Amino acid sequence: MFYTSLMSQTERIFHILDLLMERGSFRRDEVARFFEVSEKQIWRDKEYLRDRCPLSCGNLDIIFDRKLRAYVLTPESADALIRWRAESSLNIAKEKGEGKSSSFSSSMVLSDASYITYKSYAKENFSPSVYERIMLALKTKRRIVISYPTSKRHPTRTVEPLHLINYGEIWYLLAAVDGVILTYSLSRIADVTVTDIPISFSDEEKLRRLIDGYGIYSDDRNSREYVIWFYSWAIPIVSNQVWQKDQKMRLLEGGRILELSLPISNHTELMSRILFYGDAAEPRAPEDFVAEYKMKCRDMAERYE
């Protein structure tokens, strides 16, 4: 195999990461001898990881430990690297499940992936040409005409494509219609025609709020504070979950109740998620949401009477 200088650096970077993950430190002279390069080159590799790390874990704070006479990570960076390790291992396991060959990565990540099986709870097929045309329209900022045959009111309509979201292995398109952002499932779009008309939507703040919002059913309405109580077996599970980035949690009544509060603009998905926990969850606010939840519970009970 022909190795370029960039590929050689990639090998050294992954080797350094493996040493940091496996034993928590590395020495410049040791790595330099292994790759038959100068210690100055390994120092540059270390600086690259510290200042311009291309991995999803972000820049790594690598410091010199005089007692060990080796380079180590700060506790925060060590935790970030482990999260990257888990994320990367999962991605490789996912590729394996789809019949693809494993990507070039660190040996620790490849080893971890052999112990991981990826399963998707839901997956929808979509037309490759639909994806290709939408991506073209996104990059050229042009409107598209979509064929959405499952919609009785608007089987065909012109929209302004803004962003794609992959949520739980299902692809969604965020598109503006008369200034209102709507969500379309790619699997339900039968055809796409890219027009020459430029998009006019410019409210990037509104788009960012929707992208960062809870679930896939966010909308333009102002968010409200939703409060849910969890009991018994649900407490240790929910306490380790992040439902929304601005959520708040606290334990009540000596740990018998876990209170979760989060700002949400559309509670469609929240309703189904709470129902998953059965009698171990109870919505407490807002009042109209609590009333809707009780109605759904009554409807389900009546169905089985």
Give an overview in words.
The protein has 305 residues and is of the alpha+beta class. The chain has three domains: 5-113, Arc Repressor Mutant, subunit A; 128-212, Roll (SH3 type barrels), CATH 2.30.30.30; 224-303, no CATH class. It is 40% helix and 25% strand. It has helices spanning 5-22, 28-35, 39-51, 75-97, 107-113, 128-140, 204-212, 234-238, 268-276, 287-303, and strands spanning 25-26, 62-65, 70-73, 142-147, 156-167, 170-177, 180-185, 191-198, 224-230, 248-252, 257-264, 281-285. The strands form three sheets. A five-stranded antiparallel sheet has the order 7-6-5-4-8, covered by helices on one side. The chain has a four-stranded antiparallel sheet with strand order 10-11-9-12. A hairpin with a 2-residue loop joins strand 6 and strand 7 (180-185). It starts with a helix and ends with a helix. Mean pLDDT is 88; it is low at 1-7.
